[in-house]
Amino acid sequence: MSLHSRPSPRLPRELLALQDQRLALIGPGVIGRILIQRLQGAGLPASQLMVCDDDPARGARVQREFGLKVCPLADACCRADIWLLAAPPRATLDALHAFAPRLKEGQIVISFAAGVSMARLEAILPDSVAMARVMPNALSLIGRGVNPVAYGQACTLGVRTQVQAILNVLGDSIVIEDEQMDWAVGLTGASMRWLLPVLEGMTQAGVDAGLPPLDARWVAAKMMAGVAALALETDLTFEDMKTLTSVQVVDEEALARTFREAARRAKAMAEALFQK
């Protein structure tokens, strides 16, 4: 049952699963702010979204920028049907301990923290509270993210529908096992960071050729987007795609190994978060 005593205005179709549900965001950092921006942009009213944060200055900034109610996490006014846990990984368990005692049957907690396993999270929650883990990424800022999600034991079809409504405003999603979440750091969460040097190098090559910087960036980005579309919209193998052009000027195998190793290192970093 929702915490609202009166029905809220009817939501846009893509958010209907959240009708009359109150959401509370914990941790208005980079990911938290993306969540606020995307949810508000999709039509979720401020009356259904609040921020729970213990930093008065940060809370005041959120109030000014987004027009949301802000309460300290320990305050009784910090209540929700769906909790969006976007605190930094090392602060996630402490934050969950702070509000877990007030959780009730039927409520949902969604963690956006890397490296904090489902087992650690569910050990703090009442058995009747549903838990989901999401690996966010910065591309969600423009609704083009790829957000892997793992569901806990108490997640019913109805819970999954509500979580999916939130994921839809961020972009695409894929359901994976919790054991694969550390891999997701390298596959989606952080991979933009090592794709950007490729785009940057291609852009600089365009500038070297005499193109204006904005034109060079446009050409490079369009080429990367086109290659991605070729992979998504055809059944060509990678070798098939390579044969579409005869020019080969880089060590392709070495380049592929670089990206595979980057994903492995990112996974190891996620695994090490709570081993220090």
Could you walk me through the main structural features you see in this protein, from its secondary elements to its overall organization?
- The chain has 2 domains: 13-178, Rossmann fold (3-Layer(aba) Sandwich); 191-272, ProC C-terminal domain-like fold (Orthogonal Bundle), CATH 1.10.3730.
- The protein is globular.
- Helix 6 crosses helix 10 (252-272) and helix 7 (191-208) crosses helix 8 (213-233).
- With 276 residues, the chain is α/β, with parallel strands linked by helices.
- An 8-stranded mixed β-sheet has the order 3-2-1-4-5-6-7-8, with helices on both faces.
- The protein contains 10 helices and 8 strands.
- The protein has helices at 30-41, 56-66, 89-99, 118-122, 157-168, 181-189, 191-208, 213-233, 238-242, 252-272, and strands at 23-26, 49-52, 69-71, 82-85, 108-111, 130-134, 145-151, 171-175.
- The relative contact order is 0.10.
- The two termini are 41 Å apart.
- 45% of the residues lie in helices and 13% in strands.
Key features?
276 residues; alpha/beta; Rossmann fold; ProC C-terminal domain-like fold; 2 domains; 8-stranded mixed sheet; 10 helices; 8 strands; 45% helix
| Strand runs, count | 8
Tell me the CATH superfamily of the largest domain: NAD(P)-binding Rossmann-like Domain
Number of domains: 2
Strand order of the largest sheet: 3-2-1-4-5-6-7-8
Mean of residue pLDDT values: 91
CATH class of the largest domain: Alpha Beta
Rg from alpha-carbon coordinates: 21 Å
SSE topology string: EHEHEEHEHEEHEHHHHH
Quote the CATH topology of the largest domain.
Rossmann fold
Helix content percent band = 40-55%
Separation of termini?
41 Å
**Helix count?**
10
Give a quick account of the main beta sheet: strands, pairing sense, barrel closure: 8 strands, mixed
Given the C-alpha coordinates, what overall shape results?
A: globular
- Going by CATH, the architecture of the largest domain would be 3-Layer(aba) Sandwich
Strand content: 5-15%
Outline the low-pLDDT stretches: none
